[in-house]
Each structure stands twice: as C-alpha cells, then as structure tokens.
C-alpha cells in the first residue's frame, strides 16, 4: 500500500526543521512547501490526507490557503491544521471561520505536532474521494498556445492526466493542452506542468507507457467543474457495466 501523504507548508526554517526531525510512521510520507503557490500545486496533484499550513505563509497566508483549497471539490474534505501565532482568541471560532480542523499556537515541539497529526487523522477517513479514471482521449499540446503536437491520455483525475506521447518535455515544463472529451462536449483547454516523465530509456513508473504525468495549474473553477462532472459520469458508467 502506498504511504498516506501529509502536506507541510511552512516558512523556513520551520519547514526545513520538520522535514529532518519529524518522526512520522512508515505509513506516511511528508510533502513540503515553503510558499502557498507550491503548496496549492502539491495539494491539487498529490491529494494528501492532511495539510499543515503555517499562518505566516505567503503570498497567501495559511488561513487564506485553507479556504482556497476548499474551492476544489476533491479537497473539500481535506483535514487541515493551521499553525498560528499565540493570541488566537478562540480556536473554535478560528476553525469555523477558516474551515480548518485544528489550530495550534507557534512555537510548538516536534512531539506536540506529531500528537496533533495522529489525533486529527484518527477522526478523518484516509481514503481519497477523487476518482482517477482510465480514459483514452485525444490531446493536442505544446509549450505555446499553438498546441501542434499530438498524444492521448491514459488516465484522467481532478489534479491532472497522463499523456502518452513520444514528444516529451522535461520536468516542470509548462504545457498548453486541449483534451477532446467526446461528442457534444467542449474541449478542455488549459495549462499544465510536467510532474514526471516516463522515457523508454529511463522508466519511472513501469505500469505506464512512454509519456508525461501532467498536473493542472490553471483550469479555473469552470474547468475543474467540467473535469469533476466528466469523471463522475465515467465512474457511473463503469459501475453500470459491471455484472
């Protein structure tokens, strides 16, 4: 079973300190970010079971980032702990206002944070609600909006898709794409970032062919809704086909 993912988004030196010293069980892996933009990208693509957000994060602070995460349907049930400065008047009111599960005052020890992680996850399901559906869909893409290269998806999820193609880019490249979802449906257009690459001479994930794992970065609310609705329709069709 793959490890459950915990996202820690904090300013340095906190993120460096906990990356090295936080003694998580082997069943968990720690994702780290030192700004809200990176944290949002990781949350959307990796779908962690818990996010720990520093109130002093930037450009969005931890509370604002928490609300931003809630705008994505597959992250609405994400457990969130916010690390706040001392003096928060009411933890209950703070959590209600910013839609988090818990608020902890800084500074806090490694042991106190680990206890909070265990207690928070004990009250939350650890199963992702975001579907990843095997889908072969035509794709046009390129590094510019010309989108003059061709490929097709192997799978599609709310956070991105795997593109089977011989026209590979390096990790972190920004890609303009257009996915054709089928008859009577508008193509899904946007930009994505190359998260990982499978090359026939350097296979990162053996179950996938040559191609790239792409992470959505600017679908917008409407585009995210289109993906969500499409995935749920396909999931329902798969269930109907089962004997």
Automatic annotation (TrEMBL):
Keywords: Phosphoprotein. InterPro entries: Bact_response_regulator, CheY-like_superfamily, PilZ_domain, Sig_transdc_resp-reg_receiver. Pfam families: PilZ, Response_reg. Residues 5-121 form the Response regulatory domain. The modification 4-aspartylphosphate is found at residue 54. SUPFAM superfamilies: CheY-like (SSF52172), PilZ domain-like (SSF141371). This is Response regulator. It comes from Geoalkalibacter halelectricus.
């Amino acid at each position: 079973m793959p490890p459950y993912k915990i996202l820690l988004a904090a300013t340095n030196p906190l993120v460096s300190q906990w990356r090295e010293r936080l003694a998580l069980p082997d069943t968990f892996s720690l994702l780290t970010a030192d700004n809200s933009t990176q944290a949002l990208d990781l949350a959307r693509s990796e779908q962690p079971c818990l996010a720990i957000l520093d109130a002093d994060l930037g450009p969005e602070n931890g509370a604002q980032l928490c609300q931003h995460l809630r705008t994505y349907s597959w992250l609405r049930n994400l457990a969130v702990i916010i690390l706040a400065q001392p003096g928060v008047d009411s933890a209950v009111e703070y959590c209600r206002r910013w839609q988090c599960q818990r608020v902890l005052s800084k500074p806090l020890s490694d042991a106190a944070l680990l206890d909070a992680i265990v207690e928070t996850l004990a009250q939350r399901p650890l199963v992702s609600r975001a579907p990843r559906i095997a889908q072969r869909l035509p794709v046009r893409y390129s590094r510019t909006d010309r989108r003059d290269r061709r490929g097709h998806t192997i799978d599609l999820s709310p956070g991105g898709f795997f593109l089977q193609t011989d026209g590979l880019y390096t990790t972190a490249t920004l890609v303009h794409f257009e996915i054709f979802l089928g008859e009577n449906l508008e193509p899904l257009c946007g930009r994505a970032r190359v998260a990982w690459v499978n090359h026939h001479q350097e296979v990162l994930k053996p179950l996938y062919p040559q191609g790239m794992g792409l992470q959505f970065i600017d679908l917008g609310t409407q585009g995210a809704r289109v993906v969500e609705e499409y995935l749920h329709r396909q999931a329902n069709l798969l269930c109907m086909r089962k004997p």
